[in-house]
Design brief:
- The structure holds 2 protein chains of 2 kinds.
- Chain A has a 5-stranded mixed beta sheet, with helices on both faces. Chain A has a 4-stranded parallel beta sheet with strand order 11-10-13-14, sandwiched between helices. In chain A, strands 12-17-16-15 form a 4-stranded mixed beta sheet, with helices on both faces.
- Chain A is built from 19 helices and 17 strands.
- By secondary structure, chain B is an alpha+beta fold.
- Chain B has 2 domains: about 60 residues, Orthogonal Bundle (Arc Repressor Mutant, subunit A), CATH 1.10.10.1590; about 80 residues, Glutaredoxin.
- In chain B, helix 3 crosses helix 4 and helix 6 packs parallel to helix 7.
- Chain B is elongated, with a radius of gyration of 18 Å.
- Classes of the chains: A alpha/beta, B alpha+beta.
- At the A-B interface, strand 7 of A face helix 3 and helix 4 of B.
Chain lengths: ~575, ~160
């Protein structure tokens, strides 16, 4: 039902069921928000979006208040503006005064609001809070002193990720966002996806920075620093350097990394091709033995730690190859750099990922001696941007660096790992080839494309039709697992990514990204698949060459040791 | 509290239903005087609520404790009426004399002290509760006697 409302003396059409903010957004009136998250249940907690409504004595939060017929609303009256200003001043009362040193400076919602409200001095002096910074986790650092209790991180953790690693603890002025008995994220169900960082308006949640470790390695003459980057990095890093969005800037990025001082530059997409080869062999073996099906992909470290904590009985269904990041690290240390005359202990492998959980993954997956890492330092896309800026590399004057035909060839299959559904698409292409000896007639599987959290497809390979699914967001996987257990659905392969829509929306991506950014990154990845000459993993010349010279055939004992992970079922509470 | 004892409590409430959380926590607290992580984890599993959520709820309410109670558990009312009747000095006195902080338990586990916001007996303020007995219209001299008796009993 439609009706009219009066907003700032203008008649506007509204629908029943909308909130006031929905209407304001539609007609382009901006009200500031801190706790509001589009697509999530509103909480009306921060009160920043308050508006004045005729006939209601107190100000109402527009994000959660439903619009009703003949409402007279004022969005920027003196009373409203004053209330908002006082609210920001109160939030600042006990906020640390260290904006200059804060990692979030310039990208902080609270800082922006203080500027918008023209707050130029500290009006209220709150109690100084001596709260401990939680930095035991390899991926995420929590500084409760900077927290404004907007609760966005809690909602993402509950509603998108579904692990509830943090919650409001305590009551009244003593309320903090925290963990049980303040034991820290490490002792919790946290799967380190970093989505909480992406929604935090302040510097309360940040990634554990490895910038200094990388700089030290670059300046250490005894080390041989090399770098690998995830397929989403060339698809998204252009956003930070004013290069046209939705364009893959692989060769420019390679040039920048060489200029910074990395001796060899690898593309993790290539390692993804190895993952595909091994995973395809893994699947065919399962199929032959009729066991451990459906096979579930394992290259998302957040998803793997979710299973380990919450549903260990499904661990046998996880595919066994290591993730592309770890395969790249293992290959570099065991073969590539060593055959270029370097000792494995001198090679320092840096990896750039759109992900915070990869930091944890690299920390856990070590070589046989338990001390040497396969990947020495993982940085997020954000951290790489900082390093590039710090070292003064100017993208606009760079000459694109040609692909190194020996060690950085990629197939577009490996490159598709950056988006939910892409991994599965690439994997199916190689499974088809391995099972039938022929390429798929249509490489592109449209059912597995686009921004959707549950995508299903039926794929015909030889005489059999396989049903496959690509899922992102843990609650969606839970629903799928329930369907399978109740035998409503049957799948052969399930691809899972913890972050909604996959790595293009990962916890290490650019802060304050929006849907436009997601679409641009998705387009960049799909465009590579259209333009690249090599579209399947098994035709990547480096893959063919390495299987020939160094590795045994996919799925063999030797490769299991080098490229797979032996999973132990952990004890859980 | 043993696992069987907890299961006895849990079995009174339906599985996977969040509504049971508060009454279950109250029963556990009544049974053993405080809550522990292990118990919260088991309650969470039974009701299908993540541990952090259970902990968040438990810390929201003043009634739940995470330390064992002392032999003598003293609750002092700090509501408005009791405050006007001087309960803040009573609290200071109790903390000093019994060597226990509000919300805590003394090192010898003999005394624990809890602040409550109202006992619903404002007409007899100030009110102090010792284990199951209530003391109303407490005077400074009365409190002093109470403390002395307590000390004698525990020596």
């Amino acid at each position: 039902m439609q009706f009219d409302v009066d907003i700032n003396n203008q008649l506007v059409t509204a629908k029943r069921g909308e909130t006031i903010k929905n209407v304001l957004d539609r007609i382009g009136i901006h009200v500031p928000t801190l706790c509001y998250l589009p697509g999530f249940s509103p909480t009306g907690g921060c009160r920043m979006c308050v508006v004045e409504v005729d006939g209601i004595s107190e100000l109402v939060p527009s994000c959660s208040h439903p619009v009703t017929e003949w409402m007279k609303i004022k969005t920027h009256s003196p009373r409203v503006l004053k209330a908002r200003k006082v609210l920001v001043e109160l939030l600042l009362a006990s906020h640390p005064e260290d904006c200059l040193y804060c990692e979030r400076s310039g990208l902080c919602g609270l800082q922006d609001l203080a500027g918008e409200m023209n707050i130029r001095e500290r009006k209220y002096h709150g109690k100084r809070q001596n709260l401990q910074i939680d930095k035991a986790c390899q991926s995420i650092v929590r500084d409760p002193a900077k927290c404004i209790l907007c609760g966005r991180c809690i909602r993402v953790c509950d509603e998108v990720i579904g692990v509830s690693a943090i919650d409001m603890i305590g009551r009244g002025s003593e309320t903090r966002i925290g963990t049980t008995h303040n034991k820290g994220l490490n002792a919790q169900t946290c799967i380190r996806c970093g989505q909480c960082i992406m929604v935090c308006p302040t510097g309360a949640l940040t990634e554990k920075s490895n910038i200094q470790a990388v700089l030290n390695a670059l300046n250490n003459p005894e080390l041989f620093p090399v770098i690998q980057f995830s397929p989403t990095v060339p698809a998204s890093i252009g956003e930070d350097f004013n290069i046209r969005a939705s364009k893959d800037i692989l060769n420019l990025l390679r040039a920048a990394l060489k200029k910074i001082g990395f001796r060899q530059v690898f593309d993790t997409s290539m390692a993804a091709d190895f993952t595909i080869m091994e995973e395809a062999a893994d699947f065919i073996e399962r199929l032959g033995k009729h066991e451990k099906l459906p096979m579930i992909t394992s290259c998302c470290p957040s998803w793997v730690s979710y299973l380990e904590t919450f549903n260990p009985k499904l661990l046998p269904n996880l595919s066994t190859p290591a993730s592309p990041q770890q395969i790249m690290g293992r290959l570099i240390k065991n073969y590539i750099s060593t055959s270029a005359g370097q000792k494995a202990e001198n090679v320092f492998v840096v990896s750039v990922m759109p992900c915070t959980a990869k930091k944890q993954e690299a920390f856990l997956d070590r070589m046989k001696d338990e001390t040497t890492m396969n990947v020495d330092a993982v940085i997020t896309t954000r951290e790489l941007v900082r390093i590039i800026r710090l070292l003064g590399v100017d993208f606009s004057s760079l000459e694109p660096e040609p692909i190194d035909p020996h060690y950085s060839m990629r197939s577009s299959s490996g490159n598709l790992f950056g988006i939910s559904g892409g991994h599965l698409e690439g994997l199916l292409r190689t499974i088809h080839f391995m099972m039938t000896g022929q390429e798929m007639s249509m490489l592109k599987i449209n059912d597995l494309r686009g921004l959707k959290n549950r995508k299903e497809a039926r794929v015909r390979i030889g005489k059999t039709t396989f049903k496959v699914a690509a899922i992102s967001g843990i609650p969606n996987v839970k629903a799928l697992i329930d369907d399978i257990e109740a035998q409503r659905e049957e799948f052969s392969i399930i691809e899972v990514m913890a972050c909604s829509n996959g790595c293009i929306n990962g916890g290490g991506q650019k802060l304050n990204s929006d849907e436009k950014n997601l679409k641009a990154r998705m387009k960049a990845l799909y465009d590579v698949d259209d333009e690249e000459m090599i579209k399947v993993a098994h035709k990547n010349p480096v893959v063919v060459d390495l299987y020939d010279k160094f590795l045994a055939k996919p799925g063999s004992e030797r490769n299991r040791e080098l490229l797979h992970i032996q999973r132990k079922t952990p004890d859980t509470l | 509290m043993t696992k069987e004892q907890l299961e006895n409590i849990l079995s009174k409430y339906p599985e996977n239903k969040k509504d049971g959380l508060l009454p279950i926590l109250q029963e556990i607290q009544h049974f053993q005087g405080h809550l522990t992580d292990e118990l919260l984890t088991m309650v969470g599993k039974y009701l299908n609520i993540p541990l952090n959520k259970v902990y968040g709820v438990a810390t929201f309410y003043d009634q739940f404790r995470f330390h064992p109670q002392g032999v003598y558990h003293i609750r002092i009312c700090r509501g408005t009426a009791c405050h006007l009747a001087g309960s803040s000095t009573f609290l200071e006195e109790l903390e000093k004399q019994l060597k226990v902080k509000a919300g805590g338990t003394s090192k010898d586990r003999k005394f624990s002290l809890e602040i409550v916001n109202c006992m619903g007996a404002c007409d007899s303020s100030p009110v102090v509760q010792l284990n199951e007995s209530f003391y109303s219209n407490v005077t400074p001299a009365g409190l002093d006697r109470l403390i002395r008796t307590l000390k004698e009993k525990t020596e």
